[in-house]
């Protein structure tokens, strides 16, 4: 996950310096989905008393488009009146529209609506951690979606007066938060864009193995022979001996030469295929690691370099399949050509901190490989999963809690929510597709990957992405008018 705080340009800002009555606020609600690219901007530097100091062109990282970071004091436990402990949440706040082609959909439309942009760091994701200064050992006791939503509502209440129009945006888990915030706090939230939000990825509400079915479909679409060859690869990896492991680790150029665990290797490869399918974007991205456009697809620009294509041969031998895996690792981990010394699977999700997300997913959601796909079959055993969760985090999952808490069974009483899903996104199987009333909007993006509509616009965007963003803007305009 990117560092929340970078060096700023020395701008000085206090919310009270501005007319807050007419503001339209956009809340970017999850820390794992942030714009990535550098941009050129023209920025006016001001002294604290708003006297003009200088105007200059800068090429800066996207974080510097925000005014200096702030902290907000929040309750550790919003629901326990016997616990009055507090902690600091970091937030970034922008009141200027630096560029019309800035890094991300929210920045692109902020100037259209005359909106402020607010990003609040999610508790435990980054530096906003309760008891991090040694009052207690850091644990995830207070890491829940319910606590996080009240953090955000408290921040909105602190910064802005009543009748401020607030639109929340989020992708993936952030999309779940965005939808839930509109459902639970309609007095504070005018509308929500929930992109790639698997709000039905719970036992009894969707097929918990659907992500792996979608990934298999993606591979078959891009390389028709690849799923069967990958199935053969698992058999090859499981049929091993000591001599074979020496050759395999060297051929794959893996780090941790002394930890030759085939079961862990297969799980790591599964995670890599999952990640590559999520970020199969039409333009290069650095959301997880630096990757080319469409890492699963052969395009004129890719020069036949695509993961699905590596496995698309007919009758591939053992050596050819292992070589295809080695090429896949090189494309994923070494796309920039920096020639890393070895490949480390702990870098699959880049700087994203998977520990808090793993905790939340294990606590509430469901996911399993299943059998109707190219991945190794794994029988789901709730007792085993509960035991592992208890040993790792010290808690027992309650997977029926969120559906009851958020009323996902019937959204007919809710309005002003957009649910967008790309049909190539592994998480799309847990998305919401019912238009329960005229206030629930469903946008399906043909060929779309994970929250592709929240990414910055590009000349490479297919028509389906362009139309999705256009539709979302029209809907938001209706909410604000």
From TrEMBL:
One of its GO terms (biological process) is proteolysis. Keywords: Glycoprotein, Hydrolase, Protease, Signal. It comes from the Eukaryota. One of its GO terms (molecular function) is dipeptidyl-peptidase activity. It holds the Pfam family Peptidase_S28. Belongs to the peptidase S28 family. This is Lysosomal Pro-X carboxypeptidase-like. The gene is LOC115232104.
């Amino acid at each position: 996950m990117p560092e929340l705080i970078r060096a700023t340009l020395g701008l000085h800002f206090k919310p009270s310096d501005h007319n807050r009555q007419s503001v339209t606020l956009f809340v970017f609600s999850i820390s794992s989905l942030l714009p990535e690219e550098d941009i050129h901007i023209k920025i006016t530097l001001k002294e604290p008393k708003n006297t003009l100091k200088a105007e200059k062109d800068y090429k800066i990282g996207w974080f510097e488009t925000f005014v200096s970071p702030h902290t907000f004091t929040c309750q550790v436990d919003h629901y326990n009146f016997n616990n009055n402990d507090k902690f600091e949440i970091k937030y970034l706040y922008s009141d200027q529209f630096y560029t019309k082609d800035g890094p991300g959909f929210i920045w692109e439309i902020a100037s259209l609506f005359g909106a402020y942009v607010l990003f609040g760091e999610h508790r435990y994701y980054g530096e906003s951690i309760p008891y991090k200064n040694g009052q207690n050992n850091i644990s995830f006791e207070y890491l829940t979606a319910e606590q996080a939503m009240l953090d955000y509502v408290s921040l909105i209440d602190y910064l802005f007066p009543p009748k401020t129009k607030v639109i929340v945006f989020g992708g993936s888990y952030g999309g779940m938060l965005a939808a839930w915030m509109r459902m639970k706090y309609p007095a504070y939230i005018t509308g929500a864009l929930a992109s790639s939000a698997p709000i039905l990825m719970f036992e009894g509400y969707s097929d918990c193995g659907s992500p792996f079915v979608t990934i298999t479909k993606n591979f078959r679409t891009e390389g028709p022979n690849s799923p069967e060859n990958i199935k053969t690869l698992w058999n090859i990896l499981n049929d091993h001996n000591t001599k074979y492991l020496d050759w395999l680790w060297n051929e794959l150029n893996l780090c941790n030469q002394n930890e030759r665990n085939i079961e862990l290797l297969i799980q790591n490869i599964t995670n890599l295929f999952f990640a590559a399918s999520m970020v199969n974007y039409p333009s290069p991205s650095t959301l997880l690691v630096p990757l080319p456009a469409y890492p699963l697809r052969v395009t004129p620009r890719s020069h036949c370099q695509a993961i699905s294509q590596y496995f698309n041969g007919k009758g591939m031998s053992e050596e050819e399949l292992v070589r295809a895996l080695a090429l896949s690792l090189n494309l994923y981990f070494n796309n920039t050509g920096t020639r890393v010394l070895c490949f480390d699977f702990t870098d699959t999700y880049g700087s994203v901190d998977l520990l808090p997300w793993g905790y939340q997913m294990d606590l509430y959601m469901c996911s399993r490989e299943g059998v109707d796909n190219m991945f190794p079959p794994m029988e789901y055993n709730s007792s085993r999963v509960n035991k592992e969760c208890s040993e790792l985090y010290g808690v027992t999952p309650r997977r029926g809690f969120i559906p009851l808490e958020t009323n996902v069974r019937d959204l007919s009483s809710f309005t002003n929510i957009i649910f967008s899903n790309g049909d190539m996104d592994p998480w799309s199987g847990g998305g919401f597709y019912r238009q329960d009333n005229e206030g629930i909007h469903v946008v399906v993006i043909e060929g779309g990957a994970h929250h592709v509509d929240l990414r910055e616009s590009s000349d490479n965007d297919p028509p389906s992405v362009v139309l999705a963003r256009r539709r979302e803007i029209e809907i938001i305009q209706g909410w604000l008018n």
